[in-house]
Amino acid sequence: MALAKRIIPCLDIKDGQTVKGTNFVNLRQAGDPVELGRAYSEQGADELTFLDITASHEGRKTFAELVKRIAANINIPFTVGGGIHELSDVDRLLSAGADKISINSSAIRNPNLIDEIAKNFGSQVCVVAVDAKSTANGWKCYLNGGRIETDKELMQWTHEAQERGAGEILFTSMDHDGVKTGYANETLAKLSEHLSIPIIASGGAGNMEHFKDAFVEGKADAALAASVFHFGEIRITDLKSYLCTQGITVRV
To answer: Own/partner pairs for 118-121, CB < 8 Å, 24+ apart?
Structure first.
């Protein structure tokens, strides 16, 4: 029996409001995160991801109070990321109601954090998020919400993250983010061949077919999207019905 593919709406939070941009810039308001979270939970989303997108850049902690309010309004697994630098941050967010935490910049700066989280809380809690861009020298990973290029190469870094105990990889193609032309399926498929842990596709969803392609061509285990859900372009119930007609196993 094939494992069900997961559909994950993502709330990018800035100053307590949900926002959405294109290629990581030009952010616009998309609504109240507590209301959106509740709506997605009711519509049949498999999980919810909450990213405090300016926490690392501004050097502050993710808003635990908001996490608490969202967690109280949903009944699906909940991943929180942004501004997580040490085990006490993880502990605080899990206590506020998160099921998993997502680390990106802090994992690149301090890879041991992955080992520590996996050892203290279990691999299933640790999602390593990777923002990457195709450059002349291959796929490079970026820090601070896509602001700073690093020397980390996508395949090597995700493999290291897996070896250190990451439970999942959330891969965002910065070139595809918000432009709605489909996910980076070729790279997703390579990641999925290269790694044994689940891959969450992010960046590029514009229509229902893009989700199907991420699962079939990209071999992704889950697909994350933001604006197509926030602005009502795709309803999760309709998306799941469509994926069923395409022979893709989803939870309905």
So the answer is: 118/164, 118/165, 118/166, 118/167, 119/165, 120/87, 120/90, 121/90, 121/94
